[in-house]
Design brief:
The chain is about 35% helix and about 30% strand. The protein is α+β, with helices and mostly antiparallel strands. The radius of gyration is 18 Å and the shape is elongated.
Length: about 60
């Protein structure tokens, strides 16, 4: 079905995009996210530079 265009809300999308969005909406496809505390921003940057991460890297406030 790759390459087939379908209309979704007035926009044309590929059938693959529609399936991916539906999977994200129902929770069967979840993004890969790696979190680091803000105090470890240097380590997060080093992991990115070393290509040791998968998906998105997010800095979160330190606990406490």
């Amino acid at each position: 079905m790759t390459g087939t265009k379908v209309e979704v809300g007035g926009w044309f999308s590929s059938a693959d995009e529609v399936r991916a969005l539906a999977a994200a909406a129902d929770g069967t496809m979840v993004p890969a996210v790696q979190t680091f505390p803000l105090s470890a921003a240097g380590a997060a940057h080093a992991a990115l530079v070393a290509r040791a991460t998968t998906g998105k890297v997010v800095l979160v406030p330190d606990a406490g």
